[in-house]
Amino acid sequence: MAEQRDYYEVLGVSKNADEAELKKAYRRLAMKHHPDRNEGDEKAEVKFKEAKEAHDVLSDPQKRAAYDQFGHAGVTNSAAGGGGGGGEGFGDIFDSVFGDIFGGGGGGRGGNRVYRGADLRYNLELSLEDAVAGTTVKIRVPKMVVCESCKGSGAKKGSSPVNCPTCAGHGQVRMQQGFFSVQQACPQCRGQGKIISDPCGPCRGEGRVRDSKTISVKVPEGVDNGDRIRLSGEGEAGENSGPAGDLYVHISVKAHPIFERDTTDLYCDVPISFTTAALGGELEVPTLNGKVKLKIPAESQSGKMFRLRSKGVRSVRSSSTGDLLCRIIIETPVKLTSKQKELLKEFEATMDSGGNKHSPQASSWVDGVKKFFDSMTS
User: Fold this and answer.
1) Tens digit of pLDDT for each residue in 99-140?
2) 14 and 38 share a domain?
3) Is 201 inside a domain boundary?
4) Please, what's the b/e burial string for 336-352 (b: 16 or more CB within 10 A of its CB; e: otherwise)?
5) What's the domain count of the chain?
6) Full domain range(s) for residue 51
7) In this predicted model, what pLDDT tens digit does every residue of 157-215 receive, in sequence order?
8) Is residue 227 part of a domain?
């Protein structure tokens, strides 16, 4: 059997190299010599196994101490498992070596992994006036927050988490199964690397408690149904002092008794009398900024639309402002007195004597109906 090379020499590091230097050296060698990248190259496979075995020993404090004191004899049994790592796929070795860079679960060493808090959603209902003009609203949001007593550590005030005795703070343990070794999350600390021997009372060692927080939400002018406002860091607190999530405020606008909204335009129905429609006139109509005058031309028909420019909603995404569109609805008079009825009859008689010129739409419609029935009988 060939003589085993010195592990420090294999990785090309000094005997004082720290964990970061060891990992960097191993990454370089693993990427260069992995069998998946050097198919059929036996020398590359041997170098890969050497590098893996060296890293497995030197990255474990207990094995490294035994190796520094007794050499290869001090780690013969445990190293045997490390040498069998050539069967890993390139994706596996990439995850185990580089996973901690990209937030993967492979970065167990160092312990005490942190987790980002959950994002939250809050449904905010606004009046049309507040949605158009913008406003500031205070909302109360129930969520997990950092425990004030332990400042998120989970340990009782005056104490602190300690390294897990099972994994020595690494967060992972290596299980030996014959010639193979399997690395997995430590069962005692659940991969955290730390344990809390004296947990905080208010949060029971979790570092977070359920509470409600009052938050001021600035609503910009022009928001509409379905818009949402993101409040960074106002979600739930993260675990192990991890970053908080975000709060998303979803907007819904209440129905309005007068106006209907379509993006930046507003619509409203304006009832007018028969007399105003026939003779014309001027009336006041509401806008969200006060009253304005609307001139009704003589002989206006029911359903006619009048556009009041820039009296609508300012867009939340630009500086443009929509219009207010007023549709006139001619109201038929009700609860007439005897005199009023008599006057209307007299008026109707004068309309009949004038022929079709006073009611061109009605006359045209009657002519169309006649032609329709004539075509059916012919």
Assistant:
1) 443 334 333 344 456 778 899 999 999 999 999 999 999 999
2) yes
3) no
4) eeeeeeeeeeeeeeeee
5) 3
6) 7-98
7) 888 888 888 888 888 887 766 556 677 888 878 777 888 888 888 888 888 899 899 99
8) no
